[in-house]
Design goal:
Blueprint lengths: L1 H20 L15 H7 L12 H5 L21 E28 L7 H8 L10 E32 L5 E11 L2 E11 L9 E3 L4 E11 H6 L3 H9 L3
Amino acid sequence: MNRFLFLCLLPLLAVSACSRLEEVGRAPDFTPVRSGDEYHAMMSQPLPVSLEPRTAIDNASLWSRSRGSLLGDRRAMQQGDIMTVVIEINDKAEISNSSNRSRNGSEELSIPSLFGIPERINSTLPEGASLNEAVSANSSSSSGGDGTVKRNEKLTLRVAATITGVLPNGVLQIVGRQEVRVNFEMRELLVTGYVRPEDISRQNEITYDKIASARISYGGRGQITDMQQPRYGQQIADIILPF
């Protein structure tokens, strides 16, 4: 069984090792820009939006509502538009629970004279034994528990996100990716979710707490991250070994 499992895992280990060997001596590669959802959203043509008819005077006026006017609404509204997502997470939680429980009980039953039966039996019992106190039981139980949870998270980031789709109810689907390479370490930021057009500020920004189904990932890959991760063999051993 162990040999069969080793033979099954051997190809996977070989493939992962080859991919890791390609990064030896050089920095991690960036993700191709043209393979992302943002690029496809910008290249595809959005659905036509019916607009109110405007006269030539309205289109030439600086005070019109068009996006190109001086005071026009330049917030991201359609597929391919870009907005800024502001991530300012400063969460702190502290939970402490304690519980105690105790119980004591005792029961005694004596039959010193029951039709003379105890006296007759006592004569046949060993010395010191008696049936006068026939039943005696004592019980006690106690339990206690104590738990504490402390968490403190702080993250401040800004990333540009692209509208990749407009849902039938007008909600915007956004995707934002950012990669920063410093020496041999790649820092990656990913933001996805759904936003309402009315929640976008006049500065074309939206905070993370107004993004529905928000998925925020901030991590990295490279030499530092590689050294912080346990080896594949150790990870497999931690899963398989029962002790």
